[in-house]
Amino acid sequence: ETLDKGLEKSKTDFFSKLGKAVAGKSKVDDEVLDDLEDVLVSSDVGVATTVKIINRIEDRVARDKYLGTDELNKILREEIAALLAETNSGEGTEFYVPTDKKPYVIMVVGVNGVGKTTTIGKLAYQFKKEGKKVVLGAADTFRAAAIDQLQVWADRVDVPIVKQKMGSDPASVAFDSVQSAVKQDADVVIIDTAGRLHNKVNLMNELSKVKRVMQKVVDNSPHEVLLVLDGSTGQNAFEQAKQFTAATEVTSLAVTKLDGTAKGGVVIGISDQFKIPVKYIGVGEGMEDLQVFNKYEFVDSFFK
Ligand code: GDP
């Protein structure tokens, strides 16, 4: 139900455009396909993924000889689901936190403003609800607001936070956080990091350093590197995914702010373009507004 609510704007927008594209036409022809291409691109599915989808539908038109526009919705749903089946994007699996690997270390990366802190807070809430002990680490030391915001979430969810003053070494905060999680026998530690993209080499160095110090405390950590992307920024989200995956090994994605945007198609494009599972989607500002992403459910709720 929340997913439906979260996707409402994207759906309304998409179907009104699609309706215009097929208005007065009974059969899917080249003109309809051209218009469909425009609709998908303007819904932020991304050009590369749009081309793949159009090709699949063209193949189907060629195979079946005739395709009625009244079937387009159903066909789109099938072809997009089939396309996403070829990616390793989420099938409804949340972070697996093994009980014998304590603490499970999650490093969160992303540009400022995308909803990184909020996503960390929501994740902490989910873990806590499952009875897990959570520690937060405020290693985005570049902005005072980032530390304050994480503190607000720590208070709200009622979990401990490790922080230092603004401007301190992020790696040192990360080290303290993981160490504190070990001492407290925590199940999960979630580390916020600074999301400055102005300089790729700096970003790379900073993230590598943060990772290195974590590994001094817990072998093979971080166990997850979660990149948070703002779904309402459309093509910027693609660009950020490109830059972060070039700077560090990203293991999973969270796409936020899908409520209140008409750009929900971005999730389809991101799932297809990056061979990294979308694990979570943000559909609101509240504690409970984080959903485990399931690509099939997503396509279903979009096209039903
Ligand atoms: P950060 O700078 O990346 O840490 O971003 P924040 O977590 O502070 O979020 C920036 C703004 O986006 C805040 O006003 C959040 O409430 C809002 N936000 C975050 N996630 C979502 C979401 O899924 N939906 C909506 N509507 N707002 C969100």
UniProtKB/TrEMBL annotation:
One of this protein's Pfam families, by short name?
SRP54_N
Sorted UniProt keywords:
Cell membrane, Cytoplasm, GTP-binding, Hydrolase, Membrane, Nucleotide-binding, Receptor
**Compartment(s):** Cell membrane; Cytoplasm
Q: What is its EC number?
A: 3.6.5.4
Q: Which reaction does it catalyse?
A: GTP + H2O = GDP + phosphate + H(+)
> SMART domains given for it?
AAA, SRP54, SRP54_N
Where, in this chain's numbering, is GTP bound? 110-117, 192-196, 256-259
Return the InterPro entries for the record.
AAA+_ATPase, P-loop_NTPase, Signal_recog_particl_SRP54_hlx, SR_rcpt_FtsY, SRP/SRP_N, SRP54_GTPase_dom, SRP54_N_sf
Give the top-rank taxon of the lineage listed in the UniProt record for this protein: Bacteria
Recorded coiled-coil stretches:
none
GO terms under biological process? SRP-dependent cotranslational protein targeting to membrane
Membrane topology note? Peripheral membrane protein
Query: Which PROSITE patterns does this UniProt record tie to the protein?
Result: SRP54
- One Gene Ontology MF term: GTPase activity
Q: Boundaries of each SRP54-type proteins GTP-binding domain copy?
A: 277-290
Q: Would you identify the family this protein belongs to, as annotated?
A: Belongs to the GTP-binding SRP family. FtsY subfamily.
Its annotated function is as follows: Involved in targeting and insertion of nascent membrane proteins into the cytoplasmic membrane. Acts as a receptor for the complex formed by the signal recognition particle (SRP) and the ribosome-nascent chain (RNC).
Subunit structure as annotated in this protein's UniProt entry:
Part of the signal recognition particle protein translocation system, which is composed of SRP and FtsY.
Please identify the protein, giving its name as recorded: Signal recognition particle receptor FtsY
Species this chain originates from: Salinimicrobium catena
- Gene name as annotated: ftsY
